[in-house]
Design a protein that fits this description.
It is a single chain. This protein has 368 residues and is α/β, with parallel strands linked by helices. It is globular and about 60 Å long. The longest helix is centred in the N-terminal third of the chain and has 18 residues. It is 35% helix and 23% strand. The protein folds into two domains: 131 residues, Enolase-like, domain 1, CATH 3.30.390.10; 219 residues, Enolase-like C-terminal domain (TIM Barrel).
Protein backbone atom coordinates (compact mmCIF):
# COMPACT_ATOMS: atom_id res chain seq x y z
CA UNK A 1 0.00 0.00 0.00
CA UNK A 2 3.15 2.20 -0.08
CA UNK A 3 2.63 3.98 3.25
CA UNK A 4 4.58 7.22 3.51
CA UNK A 5 3.42 8.63 6.84
CA UNK A 6 1.19 7.99 9.85
CA UNK A 7 -0.18 10.89 11.90
CA UNK A 8 -1.74 10.32 15.32
CA UNK A 9 -3.93 13.01 16.85
CA UNK A 10 -5.07 12.83 20.49
CA UNK A 11 -8.26 14.86 20.86
CA UNK A 12 -10.78 15.55 23.60
CA UNK A 13 -14.32 16.87 23.32
CA UNK A 14 -17.13 17.47 25.85
CA UNK A 15 -20.39 15.56 25.38
CA UNK A 16 -23.54 17.64 25.00
CA UNK A 17 -24.93 15.81 28.04
CA UNK A 18 -23.47 13.15 30.39
CA UNK A 19 -23.66 9.50 29.31
CA UNK A 20 -24.65 7.69 32.52
CA UNK A 21 -24.43 3.97 33.33
CA UNK A 22 -23.91 2.05 36.57
CA UNK A 23 -20.20 2.04 35.65
CA UNK A 24 -20.02 5.83 35.81
CA UNK A 25 -20.74 9.01 33.88
CA UNK A 26 -18.88 10.07 30.75
CA UNK A 27 -18.78 13.86 30.35
CA UNK A 28 -15.74 14.24 28.09
CA UNK A 29 -14.48 11.91 25.38
CA UNK A 30 -10.79 11.48 24.62
CA UNK A 31 -9.75 9.56 21.53
CA UNK A 32 -7.09 8.83 18.92
CA UNK A 33 -7.49 9.89 15.30
CA UNK A 34 -5.24 8.08 12.80
CA UNK A 35 -4.35 9.43 9.36
CA UNK A 36 -2.30 7.25 7.03
CA UNK A 37 -0.87 8.84 3.88
CA UNK A 38 0.55 6.93 0.92
CA UNK A 39 3.31 8.08 -1.47
CA UNK A 40 0.70 9.56 -3.84
CA UNK A 41 -0.80 11.75 -1.11
CA UNK A 42 -3.95 9.64 -0.66
CA UNK A 43 -5.08 9.44 2.98
CA UNK A 44 -7.04 6.96 5.08
CA UNK A 45 -8.70 7.77 8.41
CA UNK A 46 -9.18 5.58 11.48
CA UNK A 47 -10.13 6.12 15.11
CA UNK A 48 -9.04 4.55 18.39
CA UNK A 49 -12.14 4.14 20.55
CA UNK A 50 -10.61 3.16 23.90
CA UNK A 51 -11.73 5.34 26.81
CA UNK A 52 -9.47 7.32 29.13
CA UNK A 53 -10.00 4.76 31.90
CA UNK A 54 -10.50 0.97 31.59
CA UNK A 55 -14.19 0.80 32.49
CA UNK A 56 -15.36 -0.89 29.28
CA UNK A 57 -12.30 -3.00 28.43
CA UNK A 58 -8.77 -3.15 29.79
CA UNK A 59 -7.56 -0.72 27.10
CA UNK A 60 -7.20 3.03 27.56
CA UNK A 61 -6.17 5.89 25.31
CA UNK A 62 -2.71 5.79 26.89
CA UNK A 63 -2.21 2.04 26.42
CA UNK A 64 -3.54 2.21 22.86
CA UNK A 65 -1.13 5.02 22.06
CA UNK A 66 1.75 2.95 23.41
CA UNK A 67 0.74 -0.09 21.37
CA UNK A 68 0.27 1.90 18.16
CA UNK A 69 3.50 3.88 18.43
CA UNK A 70 5.86 1.30 19.92
CA UNK A 71 4.52 -2.00 18.55
CA UNK A 72 2.06 -1.79 15.65
CA UNK A 73 3.57 0.98 13.52
CA UNK A 74 7.03 -0.68 13.72
CA UNK A 75 5.40 -3.92 12.53
CA UNK A 76 3.91 -2.14 9.53
CA UNK A 77 7.30 -0.62 8.77
CA UNK A 78 9.03 -3.99 8.96
CA UNK A 79 6.42 -5.96 7.00
CA UNK A 80 4.88 -3.89 4.18
CA UNK A 81 1.35 -4.95 3.25
CA UNK A 82 -0.72 -4.87 0.08
CA UNK A 83 -4.21 -5.25 1.56
CA UNK A 84 -5.82 -4.38 4.92
CA UNK A 85 -6.50 -8.06 5.66
CA UNK A 86 -2.74 -8.57 5.82
CA UNK A 87 -2.49 -6.01 8.61
CA UNK A 88 -5.16 -7.87 10.57
CA UNK A 89 -3.17 -11.08 10.23
CA UNK A 90 0.11 -9.31 11.06
CA UNK A 91 -1.34 -7.83 14.24
CA UNK A 92 -2.45 -11.28 15.47
CA UNK A 93 1.14 -11.80 16.63
CA UNK A 94 0.27 -9.31 19.40
CA UNK A 95 -2.19 -10.42 22.08
CA UNK A 96 -5.42 -8.50 22.55
CA UNK A 97 -5.12 -4.66 22.40
CA UNK A 98 -7.95 -4.81 19.89
CA UNK A 99 -8.83 -1.12 19.93
CA UNK A 100 -5.26 -0.11 19.16
CA UNK A 101 -5.19 -2.59 16.27
CA UNK A 102 -8.54 -1.37 14.95
CA UNK A 103 -7.39 2.26 14.97
CA UNK A 104 -4.67 1.50 12.43
CA UNK A 105 -6.52 -1.24 10.55
CA UNK A 106 -9.59 0.89 9.86
CA UNK A 107 -7.41 3.70 8.50
CA UNK A 108 -5.82 1.16 6.15
CA UNK A 109 -9.27 0.06 4.94
CA UNK A 110 -10.23 3.67 4.20
CA UNK A 111 -6.95 4.24 2.37
CA UNK A 112 -7.33 1.00 0.38
CA UNK A 113 -10.87 1.89 -0.68
CA UNK A 114 -9.78 5.35 -1.79
CA UNK A 115 -6.83 3.93 -3.70
CA UNK A 116 -9.35 1.81 -5.60
CA UNK A 117 -11.85 4.70 -6.00
CA UNK A 118 -14.54 2.64 -4.28
CA UNK A 119 -16.83 3.22 -1.31
CA UNK A 120 -15.67 1.25 1.72
CA UNK A 121 -19.11 -0.36 1.98
CA UNK A 122 -18.65 -1.81 -1.52
CA UNK A 123 -15.15 -3.08 -0.67
CA UNK A 124 -16.68 -4.90 2.33
CA UNK A 125 -19.48 -6.36 0.14
CA UNK A 126 -22.20 -4.25 1.70
CA UNK A 127 -25.63 -4.52 0.12
CA UNK A 128 -27.65 -1.79 1.84
CA UNK A 129 -27.76 1.82 0.64
CA UNK A 130 -29.51 2.99 3.83
CA UNK A 131 -29.09 1.69 7.37
CA UNK A 132 -31.62 1.93 10.20
CA UNK A 133 -30.48 3.98 13.16
CA UNK A 134 -30.95 3.24 16.87
CA UNK A 135 -30.01 5.24 19.92
CA UNK A 136 -29.03 4.70 23.57
CA UNK A 137 -30.82 6.21 26.56
CA UNK A 138 -28.32 6.45 29.42
CA UNK A 139 -29.81 7.98 32.56
CA UNK A 140 -30.78 6.86 36.07
CA UNK A 141 -34.13 8.66 36.00
CA UNK A 142 -37.27 7.09 34.44
CA UNK A 143 -38.69 10.56 33.78
CA UNK A 144 -35.51 11.60 31.99
CA UNK A 145 -35.53 8.34 30.05
CA UNK A 146 -39.10 8.92 28.87
CA UNK A 147 -38.26 12.50 27.87
CA UNK A 148 -35.20 11.32 25.93
CA UNK A 149 -37.20 8.58 24.21
CA UNK A 150 -39.85 11.09 23.15
CA UNK A 151 -37.17 13.32 21.67
CA UNK A 152 -35.44 10.47 19.86
CA UNK A 153 -38.69 9.17 18.41
CA UNK A 154 -39.44 12.63 17.09
CA UNK A 155 -36.01 12.54 15.43
CA UNK A 156 -36.93 9.24 13.77
CA UNK A 157 -34.77 6.71 15.62
CA UNK A 158 -36.11 3.20 15.10
CA UNK A 159 -34.86 1.36 18.15
CA UNK A 160 -34.23 2.42 21.74
CA UNK A 161 -31.67 0.87 24.08
CA UNK A 162 -31.82 1.55 27.82
CA UNK A 163 -29.14 0.87 30.40
CA UNK A 164 -30.17 -1.33 33.33
CA UNK A 165 -28.62 -2.86 36.45
CA UNK A 166 -29.94 -4.64 39.57
CA UNK A 167 -30.80 -1.30 41.16
CA UNK A 168 -32.52 -0.03 38.02
CA UNK A 169 -34.37 -2.67 36.05
CA UNK A 170 -37.95 -3.90 36.64
CA UNK A 171 -39.57 -0.69 37.89
CA UNK A 172 -37.48 1.37 35.47
CA UNK A 173 -38.61 -0.68 32.46
CA UNK A 174 -42.18 -0.85 33.75
CA UNK A 175 -42.49 2.94 33.69
CA UNK A 176 -41.10 3.08 30.16
CA UNK A 177 -43.37 0.26 28.98
CA UNK A 178 -46.39 1.98 30.52
CA UNK A 179 -45.65 5.01 28.35
CA UNK A 180 -44.53 3.05 25.28
CA UNK A 181 -46.19 -0.41 25.32
CA UNK A 182 -45.24 -1.37 21.72
CA UNK A 183 -41.91 0.40 21.28
CA UNK A 184 -38.95 -1.79 20.20
CA UNK A 185 -36.74 -1.65 23.30
CA UNK A 186 -33.59 -3.51 24.25
CA UNK A 187 -31.86 -3.43 27.61
CA UNK A 188 -28.10 -3.26 28.14
CA UNK A 189 -26.84 -4.60 31.47
CA UNK A 190 -23.08 -4.12 30.96
CA UNK A 191 -22.30 -7.28 32.99
CA UNK A 192 -24.06 -6.07 36.14
CA UNK A 193 -25.83 -9.37 37.01
CA UNK A 194 -24.84 -12.87 38.12
CA UNK A 195 -26.69 -16.18 37.95
CA UNK A 196 -27.89 -15.46 41.47
CA UNK A 197 -30.10 -12.81 39.83
CA UNK A 198 -31.81 -15.34 37.56
CA UNK A 199 -35.30 -14.71 39.00
CA UNK A 200 -34.81 -11.00 38.61
CA UNK A 201 -33.83 -11.50 34.97
CA UNK A 202 -36.74 -13.87 34.35
CA UNK A 203 -39.11 -11.15 35.55
CA UNK A 204 -37.96 -8.93 32.68
CA UNK A 205 -39.45 -11.37 30.15
CA UNK A 206 -42.84 -9.72 30.58
CA UNK A 207 -41.58 -6.52 28.93
CA UNK A 208 -41.17 -8.21 25.54
CA UNK A 209 -37.69 -6.78 25.03
CA UNK A 210 -35.88 -7.18 21.73
CA UNK A 211 -32.96 -8.53 23.77
CA UNK A 212 -30.96 -8.11 26.94
CA UNK A 213 -27.36 -7.27 26.23
CA UNK A 214 -24.46 -8.74 28.23
CA UNK A 215 -26.30 -9.46 31.50
CA UNK A 216 -23.46 -11.57 33.01
CA UNK A 217 -19.67 -11.29 33.28
CA UNK A 218 -17.82 -9.52 30.49
CA UNK A 219 -15.63 -12.56 29.70
CA UNK A 220 -18.28 -15.30 30.10
CA UNK A 221 -20.03 -17.50 27.58
CA UNK A 222 -20.71 -20.57 29.78
CA UNK A 223 -23.09 -19.01 32.31
CA UNK A 224 -24.83 -17.03 29.56
CA UNK A 225 -25.71 -20.37 27.95
CA UNK A 226 -27.27 -21.52 31.22
CA UNK A 227 -29.19 -18.25 31.57
CA UNK A 228 -30.49 -18.31 28.00
CA UNK A 229 -32.14 -21.68 28.72
CA UNK A 230 -34.07 -20.10 31.61
CA UNK A 231 -35.31 -16.86 30.07
CA UNK A 232 -37.32 -16.18 26.93
CA UNK A 233 -35.75 -12.78 26.22
CA UNK A 234 -32.94 -13.23 23.66
CA UNK A 235 -29.48 -12.67 25.09
CA UNK A 236 -27.14 -10.48 23.08
CA UNK A 237 -23.41 -10.74 23.76
CA UNK A 238 -21.17 -7.68 23.59
CA UNK A 239 -18.04 -7.62 25.77
CA UNK A 240 -17.72 -11.43 25.67
CA UNK A 241 -17.13 -11.39 21.91
CA UNK A 242 -13.66 -10.07 21.13
CA UNK A 243 -12.81 -12.45 18.27
CA UNK A 244 -14.28 -14.70 15.60
CA UNK A 245 -13.48 -17.72 17.80
CA UNK A 246 -15.47 -16.20 20.67
CA UNK A 247 -18.49 -15.72 18.41
CA UNK A 248 -18.25 -19.25 17.04
CA UNK A 249 -18.02 -20.82 20.51
CA UNK A 250 -20.85 -18.70 21.93
CA UNK A 251 -23.16 -19.70 19.09
CA UNK A 252 -22.23 -23.38 19.38
CA UNK A 253 -22.89 -23.29 23.15
CA UNK A 254 -26.22 -21.46 22.80
CA UNK A 255 -24.93 -18.55 24.88
CA UNK A 256 -26.82 -15.96 22.85
CA UNK A 257 -29.36 -15.42 20.11
CA UNK A 258 -27.94 -12.07 18.95
CA UNK A 259 -24.42 -10.60 18.70
CA UNK A 260 -23.38 -6.97 18.93
CA UNK A 261 -20.37 -6.35 16.68
CA UNK A 262 -18.11 -3.43 17.58
CA UNK A 263 -15.21 -2.83 15.25
CA UNK A 264 -12.90 -1.58 18.00
CA UNK A 265 -13.76 -4.39 20.40
CA UNK A 266 -12.89 -7.15 17.92
CA UNK A 267 -9.73 -5.59 16.48
CA UNK A 268 -10.88 -4.14 13.18
CA UNK A 269 -13.09 -4.50 10.14
CA UNK A 270 -11.61 -7.78 8.94
CA UNK A 271 -12.49 -9.62 12.16
CA UNK A 272 -15.86 -7.86 12.33
CA UNK A 273 -16.69 -9.06 8.83
CA UNK A 274 -15.60 -12.61 9.67
CA UNK A 275 -18.01 -12.61 12.63
CA UNK A 276 -20.78 -11.16 10.47
CA UNK A 277 -20.31 -13.78 7.76
CA UNK A 278 -20.42 -16.64 10.27
CA UNK A 279 -23.51 -15.27 12.02
CA UNK A 280 -25.24 -14.78 8.67
CA UNK A 281 -24.58 -18.43 7.79
CA UNK A 282 -25.91 -19.53 11.19
CA UNK A 283 -28.97 -17.22 11.05
CA UNK A 284 -27.85 -15.25 14.10
CA UNK A 285 -28.90 -11.57 13.84
CA UNK A 286 -26.17 -8.99 14.39
CA UNK A 287 -26.14 -5.27 14.94
CA UNK A 288 -23.42 -2.63 15.11
CA UNK A 289 -22.64 -1.28 18.55
CA UNK A 290 -21.41 2.21 19.41
CA UNK A 291 -18.61 3.52 21.62
CA UNK A 292 -19.58 7.20 22.11
CA UNK A 293 -17.26 7.70 19.17
CA UNK A 294 -16.36 10.59 16.94
CA UNK A 295 -17.40 10.74 13.30
CA UNK A 296 -14.57 8.68 11.81
CA UNK A 297 -15.41 5.54 13.78
CA UNK A 298 -19.08 6.24 13.12
CA UNK A 299 -18.36 6.32 9.38
CA UNK A 300 -16.62 2.93 9.53
CA UNK A 301 -19.63 1.58 11.44
CA UNK A 302 -21.95 2.79 8.68
CA UNK A 303 -19.92 0.91 6.07
CA UNK A 304 -19.91 -2.26 8.19
CA UNK A 305 -23.65 -2.04 8.94
CA UNK A 306 -24.37 -2.04 5.20
CA UNK A 307 -23.62 -5.80 5.15
CA UNK A 308 -26.71 -8.02 4.79
CA UNK A 309 -26.60 -9.64 8.24
CA UNK A 310 -27.12 -6.34 10.07
CA UNK A 311 -30.89 -6.59 10.35
CA UNK A 312 -31.28 -4.83 13.74
CA UNK A 313 -30.85 -1.05 13.99
CA UNK A 314 -27.45 -0.35 15.54
CA UNK A 315 -26.08 2.29 17.89
CA UNK A 316 -25.22 4.51 14.93
CA UNK A 317 -26.78 7.86 15.63
CA UNK A 318 -26.33 11.33 14.17
CA UNK A 319 -23.21 13.35 14.96
CA UNK A 320 -25.30 15.82 16.94
CA UNK A 321 -26.37 13.06 19.34
CA UNK A 322 -23.15 13.62 21.33
CA UNK A 323 -21.30 16.59 19.82
CA UNK A 324 -21.94 20.27 19.26
CA UNK A 325 -19.62 19.86 16.27
CA UNK A 326 -18.08 16.61 15.03
CA UNK A 327 -14.62 16.20 13.48
CA UNK A 328 -15.92 15.09 10.08
CA UNK A 329 -17.49 16.80 7.08
CA UNK A 330 -20.29 16.41 6.38
CA UNK A 331 -21.61 15.32 9.75
CA UNK A 332 -23.60 12.09 10.05
CA UNK A 333 -27.31 12.79 9.75
CA UNK A 334 -30.38 10.66 10.48
CA UNK A 335 -33.33 11.23 8.18
CA UNK A 336 -36.61 9.47 8.88
CA UNK A 337 -34.77 6.92 11.00
CA UNK A 338 -32.12 6.07 8.40
CA UNK A 339 -28.53 6.99 7.58
CA UNK A 340 -27.43 7.05 3.97
CA UNK A 341 -24.44 4.84 3.17
CA UNK A 342 -21.94 7.12 1.36
CA UNK A 343 -21.31 6.47 -2.33
CA UNK A 344 -18.01 8.39 -2.35
CA UNK A 345 -14.64 6.57 -2.17
CA UNK A 346 -13.53 5.34 1.24
CA UNK A 347 -15.63 6.16 4.28
CA UNK A 348 -17.23 9.05 2.39
CA UNK A 349 -16.38 11.70 5.01
CA UNK A 350 -13.41 14.07 5.31
CA UNK A 351 -11.61 15.42 8.35
CA UNK A 352 -12.86 18.73 9.73
CA UNK A 353 -9.42 20.28 10.15
CA UNK A 354 -10.73 23.31 12.02
CA UNK A 355 -12.54 21.17 14.60
CA UNK A 356 -9.54 18.84 14.84
CA UNK A 357 -7.30 21.75 15.83
CA UNK A 358 -9.85 23.04 18.34
CA UNK A 359 -9.95 19.69 20.16
CA UNK A 360 -6.30 18.66 19.71
CA UNK A 361 -4.30 17.66 22.80
CA UNK A 362 -1.19 16.35 21.02
CA UNK A 363 0.09 15.02 17.70
CA UNK A 364 2.76 12.54 16.63
CA UNK A 365 4.05 11.82 13.13
CA UNK A 366 5.82 8.67 11.91
CA UNK A 367 7.60 8.54 8.56
CA UNK A 368 7.98 5.26 6.67
Amino acid sequence: MKIAQVDLYIIQMPLKSPFITHLGAVTHREGIIVKITDHDGCTGLGEGVAFSTPWYTEETVATSLHMITDILIPLLKKYPIERPEEAAQLFKSIRRNHMAKAALETALWDLYAKQHSSPLAVILNGTQSMIASGVVVATNSPANAINQIEQYLEEGYQRIKVKINPEQDYSFLAEIRKEYPQLPIMADANSSYTLEDIDRLKALDEFNLLMIEQPLAQDDIIEHAALQKEISTPICLDESIVSFDDAKKAIELGSCQVINIKVGRVGGLYEAKQIHDYCLAKHIPVWCGGMIEFGISRAHNIALASLPGFTIPGDISASNRFWEEDIILPEVQVENGYIKVPAEPGIGYSLNEKRLQETLLSKRTFHF
